[in-house]
Design goal:
mainly beta; eight-stranded mixed beta sheet; 43% strand
């Protein structure tokens, strides 16, 4: 799978990926879980450059999944200049491998942030801040939605979420469903393209590989 994120000559966009167990602060791009005072095994080092699924040096995302499984990760769209990003849009192509997995296998969700203003009394509290909470479906929704920028295209800072000018990051949750039937999803490596563009014409390309294992979960 290849991710294209539109950036022009003077790039105002950076893109990176992280797994589904992190909550990324939209103002500073740090993971709330990267807190050694609460979690002795908290992630260390620059996980924005390298983590279990993201290789920043190669700009590559690598996933593994079994059949009849949903594998998830987060694409972080980061504003690198003071200028707002507007018209950030996302498109997905088919996944090409031993067979073609249609682009309908991928679902995108815009992450919605809630402002926690009071630290809880528990020792495991991660403190105050803007926490990603709700996932707004971008690829499957019905009815009238106004304004449509609740989903795609969106802006950073997001005026609807009301985080304010401090927002530098917007996370997009990605679900990738692998069919149950072996004929529909034989083992092997698959590649696709997700294109993310902004009104400024920004562009970044992030290759992603999905390796489907030769077994499926029970059930």
């Amino acid at each position: 799978m290849v991710f294209l994120l539109c950036t022009g000559a003077q790039a105002g966009v950076r893109a990176w990926a992280v797994g589904d167990s992190f909550r990324i602060d939209p103002t500073n791009g740090k993971a709330f879980e990267a807190n050694t005072l609460v979690f002795p095994d908290a992630p260390r080092g620059n996980y924005r450059e390298s983590n279990l699924l993201w290789d920043g040096a190669r700009k590559r995302i690598s996933l593994k999944a079994a059949r009849n499984e949903i594998v998830s990760f987060q694409l972080i769209v980061e504003r690198t200049t003071d200028a707002p990003l507007t018209g950030v849009d996302v498109e997905v192509s088919d996944l090409i491998g031993p067979v073609t997995l249609p682009k309908d296998s991928v679902e995108l969700f815009k992450e919605w942030y809630l402002n926690v203003t009071r630290r809880s009394a528990q020792d495991y509290s991660l403190g105050t801040g803007w926490y990603p909470d709700a996932l707004i479906p971008c690829t499957r929704w019905t009815g009238k939605l106004f304004p449509k920028s609740y989903i795609l295209p969106f802006a950073v800072p997001d005026l609807l979420n009301n985080i304010g000018p401090d927002q530098r990051n917007q996370a997009v949750w990605v679900d990738l469903y692998v069919p149950r039937d072996r004929k529909q999803a034989p083992p092997g490596s698959y590649e696709s393209t997700i294109t993310v563009c902004s009104d400024a014409g920004d562009r970044v390309e992030l290759p992603l590989s999905l390796n489907i294992c030769g077994f499926r979960p029970a059930g």
